[in-house]
């Protein structure tokens, strides 16, 4: 490459040997190139700017009812919740079809949904009145008898984006109640899940009408006019850029080397990086939002646009998020994890190629020829890439895009050509529109403005100004074709508005939150994450200090280095303006950090940093970074933490924290540096520079600046060994390595093949054994045994929400406790009513009927009250209790029934997945051997394993392979020794249920609501689709671990945020199926729920048509608040 001050501005010309005809042809070609550059560029710019306003074909979805002359309930859950418009007409005489106690004539949500009255529209008959209510407000009301007997009386309701109005028509006594209303409020529209009614099947439908236009403004396609204009615009933009390339070639230097002479030859460092990345593809942990990316991409094709799915009332990801489009195409090949992870692997390989073949050579001769520099670059690149970018989030492509933009800018500066600059502009624009974080790709353009302007001033004398500027501007706006390909300005503006209204939207002055989370002992601030970010900042500081200290550094190209520094520093600044403050976004540093590490390594080389004191203090700084990293936990996200050592604590060896040892080394190095500071005044220059030691040690002569390399190698080894340990620990259960290897072998279903589910909990209930002293007792008597005390069939608390008494500090789930509000409880309904619809069925409550032993306790997990007795000590007069049940008969051992399980509630002592015993009241299983005379000889007692979550209903588990040999019977021993009213327990009989894998039970075709945190681990299950603005009714729900479901799912996916739980919890009744991770029985893998409709329903028949509207048309604002 040429230096920045030696670019030829003028072609040397053809010389006197070129005839006049050739000169004329050459001049003609240049003249055409200038015209094409300007004219084609202007056409491309104009069409690009017009694209947001051009018309599109809108899909219009309408829901009408009754359907097929039936008043049966129909389901059509709108992902935008509220309709664009809604018209309802109800004859008052229909009240006569309802019983005297009343009922729902028509509603937009099931009447027994969790928040039905809060979000829905109802026309109902009460005992005394006929009412129209919406969102818990009575808007119309009239005496029932008067309304029913008024000829032609009807209830009329209309709502749209301007407001809502309603009235009684032809009411004989209009002054007898609330006869009309008119609300000029854009939010006065209900949520639509369908149309529901309690009218009898034979109710007349004359005059009964419900019609709603669902909000499908984002389901659009370009019109023929728009499509061909965009094709022309893209072609014109490319032609303009190519014309600029022709003008660039006038410099006569056709031999511009784009690559070094050995750029294609692989080196040991290339093999090392590729091998580590390939290993990491199989063994590495997932990133936080992989499941989010997977599901959005999987539903995009049927949705017709990039539906956010988990939040934001169904608005698209646009203008940010085009990467979901290629993810959707990629997943059409396979959803197996190795195939999905191939994308970040390829990005990483491209990123490393840019670093090693383009960035490092540009940074100067000393950087290019230093083995230490290139190895440091590789190790720091891996240090950032591995913990942040081994998934489907946007950071990998942003990291590559940012460095590519820098490389292209540097190419333009070095050669004086502007075609590379247009490519840099295109790269920056597309990187920006992949996610707001992508704004950092524009920083290299800003950093290179000054030298680029100098070259522009030179080139304008030869080629003019407009033939250069127009192609650059056209390249800058070409991204508009992608953003507005099937969307319009109005729809994108509405999407941005809804995103801002729902949030989160943090301010720039809250940027400290990101670093606070990085330093938290959670998966957000895991050891590897801390190190990658901190070592990047250390490299930045040392390079800046060295550049400021000296005007020129030997062998280092100062100007490109300053622009690289500006890119790294600018990234830190620009990230402050992002609306979210997640640590995940720090993965964008990966590529630029690798290039910067190469410069930093040369900066601390003895040839540049001459004082040994400074080199020692830099080594101390690197050691402090390592110590600070090891003061965190070795946590990874969700299933990525399975089996990882020190996932629940700070790493230590025999009680000595690892960080303390490293800190001691750092302090010693600091003291050595201080000693050298004072001592160097009295030694020779060779000693001061460390030259004598260099000549005596061939390793230090090659590894002249080892600090970055040493700490990075330590971190890399620690990470890889941690995952190797995890894979060995989980060798009989589940890990990413075993899962990915199985996928390569044709078994791609990941965690679904390792989660075992009790297929029928009631069939698994053990029966009383026919042993001496037991004469066929009833289920209740068998559980109570001969001498129970303090236990009662109704001794179960009514509020079984997670009380938070169990410590979360030792959680090994990988869930970020930085995001946990400890004041929040599970979003479950505690009313205890049979008609309630809590988020799961483990929240307790009572029923109106009694069970087999006289209990009115509402049982979880699908347990039948007619077969399952329950006993508990809640409310015991003495506050204590004891129970020894009768003996239960164990079935013959079988591979498909590996556990004895018990459904329990309250505070119970158990052993968790870390083999730590958690305190509580005692529940044990005692095994026995039956003699020839029928007498039972006790054979051993087993302590239960559990996942926690007290006092909610949950399942204790006892591994049968650990049961005493020859034991054929078992009984329950329970002791409540605490008089604290919160320390109670409740038990049901033990079970040995046949188990099937989740994959076999749920299958691949049933629609499933897969929570975003869990979605990557279940690639074979089909997410419930979105089509024509309507969410397919899911039959199952798969959630992550208990804390992840409470913190992430219940908040991010909530109805108040426009998430699918606002539909599911109002439409469906959940039943939790007991499930366990194979051979890791105490692991909280997550939760499987069977979802059944709250009321009988069928899918609605929708009327789908197409309208054409221009880019400024909008049906009005989406209701994004008040749910």
From TrEMBL:
Annotated ranges, domain Arabinosyltransferase C-terminal: 721-1119
Domain Arabinofuranosyltransferase central positions: 221-679
One GO-annotated biological process of the protein: Actinobacterium-type cell wall biogenesis
Ranges of biased composition (kind: Polar residues): 1-12
Key words, A-Z: Cell membrane, Cell wall biogenesis/degradation, Glycosyltransferase, Membrane, Transferase, Transmembrane, Transmembrane helix
Main location: membrane
Transmembrane segments: 35-54, 227-247, 268-285, 339-360, 372-388, 418-443, 464-484, 527-549, 561-580, 586-604, 616-636, 656-678, 699-723
Top-rank taxon, per record: Bacteria
Compartment(s): Cell membrane
InterPro entries registered for this protein in UniProt: Arabino_trans_C, Arabino_trans_C_2, Arabino_trans_central, Arabino_trans_N, EmbABC_dom1
Membrane topology: Multi-pass membrane protein
GO cellular component, one term: plasma membrane
Domain annotation Arabinosyltransferas concanavalin like: ranges: 58-217
Stretch list, region Disordered: 1-20, 768-864
GO molecular function: arabinosyltransferase activity
Family: Belongs to the emb family.
Functional summary from the UniProt entry: Arabinosyl transferase responsible for the polymerization of arabinose into the arabinan of arabinogalactan.
Stated name of the protein: Putative arabinosyltransferase
